[in-house]
Design a protein that fits this description.
Strand content: 5-15%
Distance between the termini: 22 Å
Oligomer: single chain
Number of strands: 5
Bound molecules: zinc ion
Number of helices: 5
Order of helices and strands: HEEEEEHHHH
């Protein structure tokens, strides 16, 4: 399955498909040590975790993943529970969800959790065949955000 590749490879693929490559480049492990200070804001690390490491605390988060923005941690981070725990499709959907948080953060949108801008951005992915987003969007709109 494609989701058993490194998660950053899936991130690269999704970034091309849905965002035209506009989301930050995902750094390789330890690569950030070599990045010049001037480049700091525009990077993210992307990795799988086997426990809910880093998924508590304030800010946009999801029980199966979390985007940690670059004011809290540098580089910004996306962590997603491994497909071994949640399955390949849920892993992929969680990554997409967290990438929408990254999109908004790096576009300068400062919105708490799943507000109108988040919902609109997620919903726009339905046009790419990601129809599962419609169900998620509905939950956020009626305020029944669950812990998926
Ligand atoms: Zn979220």
């Amino acid at each position: 399955m494609t989701t058993r590749r490194p998660l950053r490879d899936l991130y690269l693929e999704l970034n091309e498909r849905f965002w035209g490559g506009r989301l930050p480049r995902p750094l390789r492990v330890n690569e950030w040590l070599d990045i010049a200070i001037v480049d700091l804001p525009r990077f993210v690390t992307v990795r799988r975790v086997a426990i809910r490491e880093g998924m508590r605390g304030p800010g946009p988060h999801h029980a199966t993943g979390r985007f940690i923005h670059s004011r809290t941690a540098w580089p910004a981070r996306i962590v997603v529970l491994s497909w071994r725990l949640i399955g390949t499709e849920q892993e992929r959907r969680t990554l997409i969800h967290e990438m929408v948080h990254a999109e908004l953060w790096f576009a300068g949108v400062r919105e708490k959790d799943h507000g109108p801008r988040f919902v609109a951005a997620l919903e726009s992915l339905a046009a790419y065949g990601e129809e599962w987003v419609l169900e998620a969007v509905e939950r956020y709109r009626v305020g029944k955000e669950d812990a998926r």
